[in-house]
Design a protein that fits this description.
There is one protein chain. The strands form 2 sheets. Strands 3-5-4 form a 3-stranded mixed beta sheet, with helices on both faces. A two-stranded antiparallel ribbon has the order 1-2. The protein is globular, with a radius of gyration of 23 Å. The relative contact order is 0.11. It has 572 residues and is mainly alpha-helical. It has a domain of 137 residues.
């Protein structure tokens, strides 16, 4: 697939930020006016509205500069502009946010409106966690995370005389020819080995910074700090540990059977690392991977038809994104290799960044990321305050993961009957094999930030990851291979960029399966409840959001066992 050398003109125009938007003085007088204003209980709603609009303006500048930097990791000028914003705008913004929060909390006789009860509680919690020393340290933290983006965004893979991006090389892991897969895996391993020392250094810096953030806030460890920062009140670390154990006992055996059964049908003696891609398991009949499109434009076309079959309003939202430079899909050199959905709050517009290479997995990921976009659209339409948009992170992956399932019955134009059965089978198998990975990622971080030794070394990280990988992926045969490669599996996007944000994928995948199960009985009602839950935004508690979507907020052993039984039935 031939990719353009740079972002489209529409995307570049969408991400253009005026020079003044990078200057704190553009915002400072208006923030100061809010701080100086006489405020009583009756005036709080209007005052909050003005503060929200200003936060949206500054937040949109930050989001666009950050996204632009991710699209151009090899452009020093673009990187420098983003880093200048981080260093010169974010610190005074954080201080002003604390001052305004204290002003709000000091208003006598103020009772928040029902749609701001949770927001008010979160302001109170954030104010208690704030420390001046963490303002400058927060800048350091962002700079360290950006180092990870630059390193991985410029990573190349040398394979068969070609220089490929990481997504392009990973595509070859889906090849039915075992020799092709092994060559791609070894080339990727060499590429990862080359950048591993740099990422090791970044991680050690991040660990030190995160521990200091917690220490400054008088928290016993970074897990406790992050728990409060993420406003996690509906479950505890002990619940997460119980989840890890439930996945180990209830899901790993099923995942092992699925993977080993595929290997057996293919006549493989064992499952080697190049025989396993959790995002796209091998076809048991040895067929080529599905390749439903070639260009990003073709992917947009097939997705639009699926949305038109599912719901007219969803199709209209996706069309808006296509026509306004809010999609950047192709993989190319200098572009960050991950996929995500960004959000620009002033115009209530989401932006999707991907690295597509023509696979069926790209189709799934697009539905996933655009599901996030729908969340942004619907919550933004119905929640005027910027802090009430989106949702708590325990719900935020449901709009995306549920969309992967809700589109399954609207892909007849993409796949024939047999291909659609393959796509659906992989989607269901993907849930099963994903859960051990999610548990491993979460378990690693619980150890890293709450149980690891004070004088932590890279060897400690590698050893712990290796131990966990042997527990959650026991079906992989690494005999004769360099296990130092396996031990570096922790060098993954979320470990660097979004600490403790991963168990939410598991929670939400379980819920998405529940939404799909509901849609099998009543498709219209399931879609209606889906959209209603998205409209609630961040103004409702997590359990209420799940109930609105028609499912329960549960990730305990019994619930996991029941859903695995359901999936086994569907897979048969």
């Amino acid at each position: 697939m031939t990719a353009p050398l740079k972002s489209s003109e529409a995307v570049e125009n969408q991400l253009r930020v005026p020079a003044a938007a990078s200057d704190w003085e553009t915002y400072a007088p208006r923030y100061q006016a809010l701080l100086d204003e006489e405020l009583n209980a009756g005036g709080v709603p209007a005052w909050l509205g003005r503060w929200s609009a200003l936060d949206a303006e500054l937040g949109e500048a930050a989001s666009k500069l950050s996204t632009h930097a991710d699209l151009h990791t090899d452009d020093e000028a673009i990187q420098s502009r983003f880093q200048t914003f981080v260093a010169e705008v974010m610190p005074p913004s954080a201080r002003m946010g604390q001052a305004l929060t204290e002003k709000l909390l000091a208003v006598p006789d103020y009772t928040p409106a029902p749609d701001f009860v949770l927001g008010y509680r979160r302001f109170r919690e954030a104010a208690a966690l704030f420390r001046e020393a963490n303002v400058a340290l927060g800048v350091t933290h962002e700079q360290q995370k950006n180092r990870h983006s630059v390193i991985t965004g410029n990573q190349k893979v040398s394979l068969d005389g070609e220089e490929l991006t990481i997504p392009q090389a990973k595509q070859r892991l889906d090849n039915p020819d075992r020799g092709v897969r092994e060559a791609a895996w070894r080339a990727l391993a060499e590429s990862n080995r080359a950048v591993a020392p740099e990422l090791d250094a970044v991680m050690l810096d991040l660990i030190q910074t995160r521990r200091q953030l917690a220490h400054n806030a008088d928290e016993p460890d970074y897990r406790a700090y992050r728990w409060k920062e993420l406003h996690r009140v509906d479950y505890t670390p002990a619940d997460c540990v119980a989840f890890h154990e439930a996945v180990r006992d209830e899901v790993v055996p099923l995942a092992s059977r699925i993977v080993k059964d595929i290997a057996g049908q293919l006549g493989l003696d064992s499952v080697r690392p190049w025989d396993y891609n959790r995002n796209n398991l091998l076809d048991p009949q040895g067929r080529e991977s599905l390749k439903p499109f070639t260009t990003g434009h073709e992917l947009e076309e097939l997705a639009l038809k699926a949305y038109q079959g599912l719901d007219a309003d969803l199709a209209a939202r996706f069309t808006h994104m296509r026509e306004n430079g809010l999609l950047d899909l192709e993989s190319r050199p200098g572009k960050m290799t991950h996929a995500y959905c960004q959000y620009f709050p002033v115009k209530n517009e989401p932006f999707v960044l991907m690295n597509v290479v023509g696979t069926a997995e790209d189709v799934r990921v697009l539905f996933h990321e655009v599901g996030h976009a729908f969340h942004g659209f619907y919550s933004g339409d119905h929640q005027p305050l910027v802090w009430n948009r989106w949702s708590p992170i325990e719900f935020v992956e449901i709009p995306s993961m549920a969309m992967e399932f809700l589109t399954l019955d609207h892909l007849g134009h993409v796949f024939n009957e047999g291909e659609l059965a393959r796509y659906r089978q992989k989607q269901l198998e993907g849930v099963v094999v994903f859960l051990p990975w999610a548990a491993q990622m979460d378990a690693f971080q619980h150890w890293l930030y709450a149980a690891a030794p004070e004088h932590l070394t890279i060897a400690d990280l590698d050893a712990k990851w290796l131990e966990l990988d042997q527990t959650f992926h026991p079906f992989l045969n690494w005999d004769g291979l360099d296990e130092s490669i396996r031990a570096k599996g922790w060098q993954y996007y979320h470990i660097f960029q979004a600490p403790y944000y991963y168990i939410e994928y598991a929670m939400c995948y379980l819920a998405a399966v529940g939404i799909w199960r509901n849609s099998r009985e009543n498709p219209a009602q399931a879609l209606t409840r889906y959209k209603e839950a998205l409209r609630l935004g961040n103004a409702s508690p997590v359990p209420d959001l799940y109930r609105a979507a028609g499912v329960d907020f549960r990730f305990d052993r019994e619930h996991i066992r029941g859903l695995m039984t359901f999936l086994q039935g569907e897979l048969k």
